[in-house]
């Protein structure tokens, strides 16, 4: 009779019952999640400099391999899309559990953004913004989604962080999803990325 080591038995179970093993791992993770998180946090605090050095070195390695970096980002986007609802629920749960910390962070982020907007050249009045909205036919500038005026977001084609202005010519209406996905990319960079994703599908 063939004998198997403990490792081999585990591997056989994983191959024969992948869903059962996955569910078991999930239950174990949920059971010890808080304990493991506390241990990991304590270790990072005790080894903060070591962690910083590791992440800096890892970032440099990723930047040195653009093909691998692009593949990694595509994988992350795909994972987010497949687990979008769960991720949103996790974020909401975190914000609820860390209300004070999140509120301070949001205030700091908003203050920084206001500072950049005020420092950037140009202005866009409500009438000019309405004109830009109508120029795009009441649609998002990056996707065919139809928007109501009050739900359209003022999106900078060239981000303020990259030298963009507040002049109407640099502002387009965008839906919340496109505005979030675009981030700090220029409209050209974002368009190229969306074309690449569409071509890969």
UniProtKB/TrEMBL annotation:
Q: Which residues form the signal peptide?
A: none
InterPro entries attached to this UniProt entry: HNH_5, HNH_nuc, NA-targeting_endonuclease
Task: Give the HNH nuclease domain ranges.
Answer: 127-180
What is the name attached to this protein's record? HNH nuclease domain-containing protein
